[in-house]
Amino acid sequence: MHIAVAGNIGSGKTTLTTMLAKHYGWKPQFESVINNPYLEDYYKDIQRWSLNLEIYFLKERFKDMLELKKSDEDIIQDRSIFEGVYVFAYNNKEQGNMSEIDFKIYMDLFHLMMSFTKEPDLMIYLRASVPHLVSHIQMRGRDYEQSISLDYLQGLNERYDDFIYHHYKGRVLTIEVDNLDFLHRPADFESITNRIDSLLFGLFQ
To answer: What's the CA gap between 37 and 58, in Å, rounded?
Structure first.
């Protein structure tokens, strides 16, 4: 079984992935630190190197998908190939960093890749408002995240909603996290696992 957790920066993906892995005995898979050879050039000239950067990420995430397909373990994944495509690459295109032709070629390649694999058994989408995201980003205090703009977070939120509700074809469980504290309040975490149990195992229906 393959479960994926999706959500914007600061939505709690890694925390929930870790907790669910422990609760269900699933193997967690976190996105590895990818030494993308285009990163340095990308930040010097974003428009010139966006396509190269995104294709490299796509290739690495596709490799992860093929490994998941071969595995006989139950795996929960923190961020999937689908977010990289429909949220981050699409955001680059919308910001004018990828041309329409480049983006079409990129999407053609992605769709070809998808013919060799499939969507996760369940996508858990952590949906959060920008103030909630900002609060979490500030609490964890990662220096490189502190300069993220509100407009950027809002733009990603819009991309996530568009991805989940208009492009993604698999099964989705949307969790509104603004009023939840699943790390510190056991009842909040139980409310999530009850919904997962219902979808995956037919319980609590």
So the answer is: 13
Q: At 91, is the secondary structure helix, strand, or coil? A: helix
So which residues are the catalytic ones?
78
CA gap 53, 97 in Å, rounded: 11
CB atoms within 10 A of CB 149: 8
What pLDDT was estimated at residue 30? 86
Angle at 51 between CA 47 and CA 53, to 5 degrees: 100
Which H or E run contains 159? helix 150-162
φ, ψ (nearest 5 deg) of residue 56:
-65, -45
Q: What is the pLDDT of residue 144?
A: 53
* Token duo for residue 61: 């995430």
Instruction: Give dist(CA 58, CA 61) in Å, integer.
Output: 5
pLDDT score, position 109: 96
CATH of the domain at 96: 3.40.50.300
* Residue 64 structural domain: 2-201
Return the pLDDT at 82: 94
The stretches in the chain having pLDDT less than 70 are 32-34, 141-147, 203-205
Residue 54 CA to residue 120 CA, distance in Å, equals 21
Do the strands 122-127 and 172-176 form a parallel or antiparallel pair, or are they unpaired? parallel
Provide the number of structural domains found in the chain. 1
